[in-house]
Design goal:
This protein is mainly alpha-helical and about 70 residues long. It is elongated and about 35 Å long. The protein is built from 3 helices and no strands. The longest helix is centred in the middle third of the chain and has 23 residues, at about 35-55.
Length: about 70
């Protein structure tokens, strides 16, 4: 997670460590619900990219969905 940008990390921390729902994340970040959804989507994509890359995985086409 340290490779992710601070704002990207923040979204993942709010969602998965603090258990906030998307509307709560939007409030915490002073964003709209749509912006919070996009931030979460992009954060998961970046996390997946870094995780698969650092693991040296040969998995192709896998996605993380929550």
């Amino acid at each position: 997670m340290t490779r992710l940008a601070p704002k990207t990390r923040e979204v993942l921390m709010l969602r998965f460590y603090q258990g906030l729902a998307l509307d709560e994340i939007a409030q915490a970040l002073h964003d709209t619900l749509g912006a919070a959804k996009m931030r979460r989507y992009r954060a998961l994509q970046q996390f997946q990219h870094h995780y698969l890359r650092s693991a040296g995985s040969t998995i192709i086409g896998s996605t993380i969905t929550i």
